Amino acid sequence: MRRAYAKVIGLSLLMLLLPLSGCMEGPRVQSNDSTTSEQLELPQWEVGDYWLYTFVTPQFGEDSARLVVAESDNESGLYRLGISSLRESQRHAVINHNPFLGRVTMDGLSVYENGDPQPVFNFPWNVGDEWSFVLLGQSWTAQTVNIYNGDIDVIAESDESHSLVYTFSASSMFLESFVWTDDSGEEQLRMQIAKTGSDYSGEVWFHRATDLKDETYLQNDNDIYDTFFDSGHPSGEEFDHLVWYIDVEISQGGSGSLTISDHTSASPLTRAWGSGSTEKGAIGTIPSTSDEYSMTVTLRGQTSVLHVKIAGAIEYQWTL
After folding, report:
1. How far from 247 is each of 90, 136, 198, 267, 283, CA to CA, in Å?
2. In this predicted structure, what is the pLDDT of residue 5?
3. Residues 16 and 165 in one domain
4. Using one digit for the tens of pLDDT, what is the confidence trace for 108-133?
5. So what's the pLDDT on residue 30?
6. How many CB atoms lie within 10 A of CB 319?
């Protein structure tokens, strides 16, 4: 567990919180803390509540969008969080870089991963409490390390030595910040709040998605043929469309191309790249035909590489 501290000690968020050594223990007590008992309890959201965040990811760089409470259903005990950017919703569908979109439980603000609610937050908050959850494909052990003036600081380490550092703000009733760092020390996601509000007016989206294809192709003297099926959402519903993501680097003197065709031989996605080309974080949608798709890839050049991800998505859209 000391490895998690070594990764996050440089973050300004923890500079005033963490001891110089130790394993999830010994948080500094703030004698002038103004946190009330009510601020440690579970908050209640209303439709139209929103939080404007800056998101930073290695795939897409920096972007900003609002997370918005789009639905509140007492019968199911669920909120639905949408996002004010259609493109951000599509990015989440294929990269899963924003785990707080979609269903959130009313009884704990738990978010869903693989169909199960995950207790990222631990109400009522108490310094020293430990708990576990699954998020971002990792199994985490978390601890509340500090509470000060209504801000609750949490650190977590996964079984694969990834780390999370996040702060829940009682005043805004949601995350103040959230940083996910992988086992190599690279930040995979940083969220920082910029503004909160209520009575949001406008459109918001959420894409409930399932991965269909995630493959990296390397230089090959011959064409590469591959397939994937346009089916398999756990809900049993048909996809509204497929979301694709591409990262490509073509070496000097090389070339490359990608063609995706459906069972009618239509080709809704074609790409071609010349010598020295790069295309990072490209994203878009193609129709869902509920059948098999074929892929043809050509890659020439010693260091040429292509990463392709395809997700089937059910699109939700609200106008508030």
Report:
1. 16, 20, 37, 19, 9
2. 40
3. yes
4. 999 998 889 999 999 999 999 999 99
5. 55
6. 8
What local confidence, expressed as pLDDT, does residue 231 receive? Answer: 80
CA distance 298 to 272: 9
CB 283 within 8 Å of CB 90: yes
| Helix, strand, coil % in the chain, rounded to nearest 5 | 5, 55, 40
For residue 313, CA distances in Å to 202, 233, 284, 289, 308 come to 22, 8, 12, 12, 16
Angle at 188 between CA 182 and CA 194, to 5 degrees: 135
CA–CA dist 199, 202 (Å, integer): 10
Instruction: Tell me how many domains the chain contains.
Output: 2
Question: What are the two backbone dihedrals, phi and then psi, of residue 74, each rounded to the nearest 5 degrees?
Answer: -65, -30
Alpha helices, DSSP H only, in 168-305? none
Query: What pTM does this model have?
Result: 0.83
Peptide bond into 119 cis (omega under 30): no
Round to whole Å and give the CA distance between 157 and 261. 42
Assigned domain for 319 exists: no
pLDDT beneath 70: ranges in the chain: 1-31
Domain that holds residue 280: 212-314
Final residue before a domain boundary, out of 201, 225, 250: 201
